[in-house]
Amino acid sequence: MKRLFKNGTVITMDSNLGNFKDADVLIENDKIIEVGPNISADNCEVIDAKDMIVMPGLVDTHRHTWESVIRNAGADWSLQTYLGNIYYGNIGSRRRPEDDYVGNLLGALEALESGVTTLYDWTMIISNDHAEEMIRGLKESGIRAIFGYGSPGDAEYWNSDSKLDTIDKARAMKERHFSSDDQLLTMGLAIRGPEFSSWETSVKEIQFAREIDAVCSMHLGFGTWGSTERSIEKLHAAGC
Predict the structure, then answer these.
(1) What is the 3-state secondary structure (H, E, C) of 132-164?
(2) Regarding the domain delimited by 58-237, which CATH topology (the fold level of the hierarchy) does it fall under?
């Protein structure tokens, strides 16, 4: 399958290629074959990109994808109200697995529609059944994503000092779904970090992420906690 985008304003994000006010982009299967003015190609679908911008997809490095189904629910909430409802209980802990499937599918499709072709899905997993349905939603959307496993949306976990709600579960999830590093959907860890858990727990979870070669993400430098604890400096000094 070849596609030829004709006569678009092309932003390549490549310093060697530069940008073009009027140019074409030829794609074969999932590879960009050629970029430049007046490309000729046989046996391809031609897409008129006149008055359009052709550019690489945007990357969202932190998206709670399941929350697509509760959009606008907290438009007038303070941060603390949001955290109380979404992280520590209420909405965040009452989701069914099928809710997370729908949320992740719709959220990923919404991202693609907006030009975001890659995202980091910062999950709040309640159970393995929820995780499976989240993964299913992302896979069916066709988006490229990192599935950030961890940090459940319930008060018990956030008030405890458990290590990622068992490292064994995360390891098993990686073995089951993320055996290859070049597939569209790969695995990361969504951990609480030192401002929402103990220092020892944070270090343990970061070390585990390195052990399984997973991208590790956390909320860090968070409001007044970040300014008083200086967590980023501490993690840097500790080699994390």
Answers:
(1) HHHHHHHHHHCCEEEEEECCCCCHHHHCCCCCC
(2) TIM Barrel (3.20.20)
